[in-house]
Amino acid sequence: MLHEIDLSRTDLNLLVLFEAVFAERHVGRAAERLTLSPSAVSHGLGRLRRMLNDPVFLKTPKGVIPTERAEDLAPAIAAVLQQMRGIVAQSEPFNPANSTRRFVIGAPDGVSAVFLHPLLAQITAEAPGLDIGIRQLLPAPDEIALDRAWRGAFADLETRALDVAVIPIDSAPLRFAIRTLYNEDFVLAMRPDHAFLSNPSLESYCDSGHLVVSLTGDPKGFVDEVLAREGRSRRVQLTVPNFMFACAILSETDLICAIPRRFATIYAGRFGLAIEHPPLPLGNFSLNAFAPKAALHDDGVAWLLERLEEVGSLVRKP
Fold this sequence. Notes:
Blueprint: H1 13-24, H2 27-34, H3 38-52, E1 57-60, E2 63-66, H4 68-91, E3 102-107, H5 109-126, E4 131-136, H6 146-149, H7 151-158, E5 164-167, E6 176-190, H8 202-207, E7 209-213, H9 222-229, E8 235-240, H10 243-250, E9 255-260, H11 261-267, E10 274-276, E11 284-292, H12 299-316
Parallel strand pairs: 3-4, 3-5, 7-8, 7-9
Antiparallel strand pairs: 1-2, 5-11, 6-9, 6-10, 6-11
Helix pairs in contact: 1-2, 1-3, 1-4, 2-3, 5-12
């Protein structure tokens, strides 16, 4: 039978000490960072070694280096401390003007690249100490039903790995709040001298080489389903994991890629790309922001969702 570890006998401040020494690789600098004396840090390291049953840090002429076990533990300790800091931050009244919290937003890169600039402008003005992390989200491969395709995003929201997810789906389980940001459709991006531009027909489109954005490398996308309904198909010559990479490749190849219209409006010119309407409708969709309703009791998450709504209204303007 495994013995349960008694955390009441464990000083979790030792994890903060571990973090500082691991980052600084020097006892003196870690002491300055923690506003402690070098002897107090050395004493804490002794307790940390006994707690972890490992030397943890080894002395060198220039400071200290972590042991192999310390290297292995560092990511887990960082995650624990981040969660603890988040819990403490959430227990205090949220004031954007002086908050130093960090929020994580998940979205496809063709979406985050549209809302991120105006969102950062708002944050700089209202919450200059607040940090944002962006995680790329793409639908699960081989899933036709949208609720199944984006199930990973909702799972991450429930575990609080994400604070907000912005994804192209119109509904979710009742335990999630939803805010509509803007509507989107697709255009075609390619080199300015691409042959398709002189003959933008469906046949010419199908005969062209295609690039598909796919995180997993799966060459089949929503365009293939649209073409299949017309009894058509295409050749996908290349897949890349995000739209920014796709734009860089398109400018130097003879490939065509379907990209979100608002993303294209902002970035196509920067990559020297031409934009053309597709020869058949590729569909349109709404971009919605989701957060667990329970998470909205956190004033910080509620504030972030409101800012995203405001950004959506800016994006919708012509």
